[in-house]
Amino acid sequence: MKKILCAAIATGAIFIGSAIETKAASFADVVFVVDQSGSMGGEFAWIGNSISSINTALVAGGVTAKYGVAGYEYYAGSAAAQNAWLDLTSDINAVVTEVNSVNVYGGTERGYQAADWSADNFSWSGGNYAKIMILVTDEPNDYRSSYAYDGLTGEAALDKKMADEKILLNVITYTNYYQYWDDPAYSRDAYVGLFDLDYLRTNPSDFTTAFVAAKLKEIQDVPVPEPTTMLLFGTGLAGLAAVGRRRARK
Predict the structure, then answer these.
(1) How far apart are CA 233 and CA 148, in angstroms?
(2) Is the pTM of the predicted complex or chain greater than 0.70?
(3) C-alpha–C-alpha distance, residues 157 and 167, integer Å
(4) DSSP run (H or E) holding 64
(5) Confidence of residue 72 (pLDDT cuts 50, 70, 90)
(6) Sign of the four-CA dihedral 198, 179, 113, 125
């Protein structure tokens, strides 16, 4: 009996080891969260002009993506009727229609709150989809110090929120505003998901090429479990449980 039990434990250990094997993500949810103040019309236009080429580049890199849009001022997305809002979809034309119909307005931006709202209100696919949030603004986060989450405030709170939701936050803003985003922005080794808004505004073509390459690398760096190894993991656990029951009966 001891030999059988040891063999089952060894087999289970192999299955457990297999279960942590992963592959690069090949699916992604990509949401644009955009400051909807009066100076941001060009950034909505950039999304409309670039989304097709962005999608084409991701597909060429082996990634299937869905896209969503949320405009924000004091409130974000569907929390205010005048805000841009499109939940995740594979319909590129729907994205173009939404961003081309946006009316920019106002001037009270709450970027941390907008990121938080977007984390909770988009229909993220979960599973083997990478979760990418691209926040675009030309203003500092006016109410960043009032944002709270899980006992934390400000930048530390948003950092925790993004980590808990497994969202890779990217921010396109002026370089002097990086200081408000460098903790919650996605980072890996020396890479940080912060992008210069001036570069986008002065050279949108080159910016888009570099930006999409960075997104593709981010998505491919997201590990997802191999479905077959997860099945083996479950089989291994079932085998261990069966041995345990037989031993208990004896």
Answers:
(1) 38
(2) yes
(3) 14
(4) strand 64-72
(5) very high
(6) positive
